[in-house]
Design a protein that fits this description.
Length: 291
Amino acid sequence: MTSLEASEVVLTFLESVGRRSEAELYLELFRKLPKSSFGVIAAEATVTRHAHRSLVEQLSFLTQLGLVAPLLLGLFDPKGAAESSATLVKSLGKAGIDISKHPASSISSGNLLKAELEAGTLPIVSFARDSVEDERFAALDSLLGNLDSKKLVVLRNRGGLGPHGQRRVAISQEHVLPAHDGGISVINLQTDLAPLLESNLLMPGEGALLGRLAPLAEANPKLQVSVASPLGLLKELFTVRGAGTLVKRGAQIQRFDTYQGLERERLSALLESAFHKRLKPSFFERAPLAV
């Protein structure tokens, strides 16, 4: 099967989880990136232990599309991952995926992984059993920066964060988050993180996970951080709706009913740039509906 035929098979499969036009759009965007910048995938030990077949299937589809991402094992539970990684590695080999294996201590610069990713090899990076959590996440942060990664996908059996099977998750009467079958759709770190952590909406361990992912998203403005299940990996990557939870840096939006307190010169420049017209001298004399 040629790479073009393989892509057609995978795109046809993606039609079962979303619109083909969406899949083709995302695939085009991903293929415009350097191969080493596509993303990084971190799998919890429970995934490699109980759902490795689903993970292998999804990774196989990605490689057929010409997309490879370093697979991190042991980021959350290095002892548990070490016990189940051999089975995963064996299954990846049987699926015909070209892999390489590295201890996390050897990939700090990212140069070796860049070369392998450009060649279409899937690097498997394992953290030592006795490694310290702070050091593991520092290594991940460094790797994301060195590869200029655009995505970090955390895979766990439960999938996205928060309640599942709902369309809206209410933190309060005024503060409602979009949701779907796989959990909360999007978490804006600027507006949602603190109230969400104070609520009882998160499952045990999810607050700690958010606490680890938030600094990564804050430190890397161009990075998209997602939490999904292995079975929903392709849907998370190739559909607008996704299948898990997108954790984004976000922004805090403020509303003003007058121009007082605003930098009029900057606002004027912004409006003129957007509409390609000069503002009338009397523009700011009229009260706005809202800014």
